[in-house]
Write a structure and sequence with these properties.
Layout: H1 18-22, H2 24-35, E1 45-49, H3 53-64, E2 69-73, H4 77-80
Parallel strand pairs: 1-2
Helix pairs in contact: 2-3
Amino acid sequence: SDLAAADNVITFKNNDNLKDIAFAEPLAVAVHGIKLVPEGVKGKSVLVTGAGAIGMLTAQAAKHMGAAKVFVTDLMPNRLE
């Protein structure tokens, strides 16, 4: 079927902030990635490779979920700033 299951659909109201909505999927990717760590990140050092939007959201999610230290690497100097 071409239709998404109802459990996988989130609806938004006309007055919802489109900028916030645009971050919903990248944030979900970041949080999912942190949740995949077998023993969790609490109290651990975390390395995020890539300082793009998803990488920065992943770093924030790791810190929010209790990582002791979060390091971010990238090959593009402007992203590291």
